[in-house]
Amino acid sequence: MTNRRLEADDIVAGSALPCDIFDANGRLLLRSGQTIRDDAQVVRLLAHGVYGDLESNRVPEAADAAVKRVPVYARIQSVRDGLQASLAGVAQGLPVVPDEIVRHARHLVDLCALDPDAALATVLLQKGNPYGIRQMVNAAVVSELLLMQKQPDAEQRIPVLAAALTMNVSMLALQQTLYGQQEDLTAAQRYEIRRHPEDTAHILETSGVTDRTWLTVVRHHHEALDGTGYPGKLSGADLSLGAQIVGIADRYCAMVSERGYRPGASPNVALRQIFLAQGKSVDPMLAAMVVKEVGLYPPGTVVQLANGEIGIAMKRTLNSSHPVVRTVLNGSGIRAPAMPKRRTSQPSFAIVEVHPLSKIPPGIDPGSIWIPRETDTDDNADA
Questions:
Q1: Are the beta carbons of 162 and 101 closer than 8 angstroms?
Q2: How far is it, in rounded angstroms, from Cα 262 to Cα 359?
Q3: What region does 339 belong to: left with phi over 0, alpha with psi -120 to 50, or beta?
Q4: What are residue 137's phi and psi, to 5 degrees?
Q5: CA-to-CA distance for 271 and 266, rounded, in angstroms?
Q6: What is the widest separation between alpha-carbon atoms in the chain?
Q7: Which end of the chain has fewer CB atoms surrounding its CB within 10 Å, N or C?
């Protein structure tokens, strides 16, 4: 291995590191595949003096498609971290920077296209960051997967995703309070919640956001098809597709997310509630699309199979009831290092129960589920 000092062109913020990174004394600092969060961190590393062997870690072109899947799970976390940094000053009255939000939205579009299953898994598995930040990124991921089916042009989707990433800006502090609050909402809290779509739109407008789609989706994401939503009690044709999609994504992600005092609902239970609301507060076609695109056992769902194994759903199939699963614990409850794939369409691997994430022992990295393995065989995922 021949390390050389790395230069600015060798490390790109937001992209996976091309090789292991060492300091001048040969101590390992960062592993290949990790993501540098922002340009400031790149500058600090280069100023410190870092070294690596780009050639020995170069990946053959034939393997490129598989390797591209590796960092998506972790890079969604980098979007969360970036959004948290972008909104850190809002509570102190600092403006939102529209270009930063758009950059995060574009990053999500790229990641969801690269590996939509890994991106969707982060909704259930990644628990870092304040709840409000998580919720907005989670809703943006689900919104993007739904929007891709309706608006093939990514540029048309960017304002809607920007809205999802900022829809709760005015009440981030309240969301964190409510995360652990078991008591009933106070009158003041109820008022703030009812006002937050309009208050957030006002913050965005004073920050320089002029895109009407962005602002409209923020204002309308809590409106309902039957006029029971808020703040304007709009209904039917008054609601844009973007507002309805962000609204249903927000609802789903809120149901499956834990609070400080309770676990999140299992995805199949959350989707059942959404499906039951069709024709009332939710458009029937949109409810059906959510079930189809997310799946009854979306990636990240912890499941028990008929043979006693515990696994994590890793890939959706054409049948929403039969995802591909990676086994993490065998039938005796012992860790399965090879994490074999299971086709749940087969009776011996059928899903019999959904478990909370706590069923997975500490030390198992959920993100490793989406790293291709040499032991993998054709999973016949569409069967």
A1: yes
A2: 15
A3: left
A4: -70, -40
A5: 9
A6: 66
A7: N
Helix, strand, or coil (residue 93): coil
Q: Between the CA atoms of 17, 23, 24 and 27, what dihedral angle is there, to the nearest 10 degrees?
A: -120
In degrees and rounded to multiples of 5, residue 93 shows phi and psi of 90, 5
In the chain, domain spans: 4-58, 67-294, 302-370
Round to whole Å and give the CA distance between 66 and 61: 10
What would the pLDDT profile of 315-365 be if each residue is shown by its tens digit? 999 898 999 999 999 999 999 988 999 999 999 999 999 999 999 998 888
> In terms of residues, how long is the chain?
383
CA 213, distance to chain mean position in Å, is 22
**CA gap 300, 268 in Å, rounded:** 12
- In a 10 Å sphere around its CB, with 0-12 CB exposed, 13-18 middle and 19+ buried, how is residue 272 labelled? middle
**Tokens coding 141:** 């991921």
Query: Order of strands, edge to edge, in the sheet holding 310-315?
Result: 341-343, 324-329, 310-315, 302-305, 351-355
Q: Top-level CATH class of 67-294?
A: mainly alpha
Q: Please report, in tens digits, the pLDDT of each residue of the chain (383 residues total).
A: 567 887 766 777 766 777 888 888 777 788 776 777 666 677 777 777 888 886 654 434 443 444 344 479 999 999 999 999 999 999 899 999 999 999 999 999 999 999 999 999 999 999 989 999 999 999 999 999 999 988 889 999 999 999 999 999 999 999 999 999 999 999 999 999 999 999 999 999 999 999 999 999 999 999 999 999 999 999 988 999 999 999 999 999 999 999 988 889 999 999 999 988 877 889 999 999 999 999 999 999 999 999 999 999 999 998 989 999 999 999 999 999 889 999 999 999 999 999 999 999 988 888 889 876 655 554 444 44
